[in-house]
Amino acid sequence: MQVFNVQGMTCGHCVKAVTRALQEQDATAQVEVDLAGRQVRVNSELDAGQLLAAIREEGYEAQVAG
User: Where does the HMA domain lie (predicted)?
Assistant: First the structure.
């Protein structure tokens, strides 16, 4: 499970956009979005760089949670 801090997510549309972007990269990815905590948890075979790129391409600022 990889965890990312994502800024700018405010609503259900944001959740759908981020989830869709990640699942377009890995159709089997399991994505959990915590709007209040501004975090996205992803269970995927892809590396963090690929997942971050997908989130950023949707227009959100993201980094690996640490």
Answer: 1-63
Query: Exposed (0-12), middle (13-18) or buried (19+): which is 42, by Cβ within 10 Å?
Result: buried
Q: What CATH number labels 2-64?
A: 3.30.70.100
Residue 66, pLDDT score: 81
Distance CA 23, CA 18 (A): 9
Q: Are 62 and 56 in contact (CB under 8 A)?
A: yes
Instruction: Give 46's DSSP letter.
Output: S
pTM of the predicted structure, to 2 decimals:
0.91
